[in-house]
Design a protein that fits this description.
Layout lengths: L3 E7 L5 H6 L4 E3 L6 H9 L6 E7 L5 E14 L23 E16 H4 L19 E4 L1 H13 L2
Parallel strand pairs: 1-3
Antiparallel strand pairs: 1-6, 2-5, 3-4, 4-5
This protein binds a DNA duplex through loops.
Length: 157
DNA sequence: GCCAACGTTGGC
DNA sequence: GCCAACGTTGGC
């Protein structure tokens, strides 16, 4: 049983095109410094899970493609690097405070699912991405929601 | 650039 | 443990 997730990224910081250009089309998703997101990485995101890639703070904001988790949660080493902007002295190698996962590019949608479009899809009323004030950068997607998203992406050609 | 919503910090 | 202040996120 694979689960579904949505990862947010500002396209100017790291876009799906950047992922596609990465070695083996794979990257570690580091720099998550929010406890809720951390808990997902540590306890729930598993190898084989499907990830919707979302561009935030861009125009238009949209789900732009799909990736696959290729490595479950492990210690985020940027937290150990004093030169990193993600450095956190409370984290150690033995006792990581922050976690990351690895994802591999799967597909870029021919036409991204824009935020505006998502708001009009029946069945997504409770989708966390669409909820007011939502700021979580790693969020769970239910199987029902995932199927709706995949169907819409397919229909969007 | 603005502002609402949220998470975190720190004083008490 | 409460809550005000602050910093950040993210849509517009």
């Amino acid at each position: 049983m694979c689960a579904y997730w949505l990862f947010k990224s500002e396209s100017s910081v790291f876009s799906i095109a950047d992922l596609q250009k990465s070695p083996k089309k794979t990257t570690c998703w580091n720099g998550v410094r929010n406890y809720q997101a951390r808990n997902f990485f540590r306890d729930a995101v598993r190898k084989g899970d499907l990830v919707f890639f979302y561009h935030s703070n861009t125009d238009p904001n949209a789900i732009v493609g799909l990736c696959e988790v290729v490595k479950s949660g492990y210690g985020d080493y940027t937290a150990l690097d004093p030169d990193s902007e993600y450095y956190d002295p409370k984290s150690t190698k033995e006792n990581p405070l922050w976690y990351m996962v690895d994802i591999r590019f799967k597909e870029a949608f021919a036409k991204p699912l824009t935020l505006d479009q998502l708001r009009h899809i029946p069945g997504l009323e409770n989708f966390r991405l669409l909820q007011r004030g939502n700021r979580l950068s790693v969020l769970p997607v239910t199987e029902t929601e995932a199927h709706l998203l995949l169907a819409q992406a397919k229909a969007n050609t």
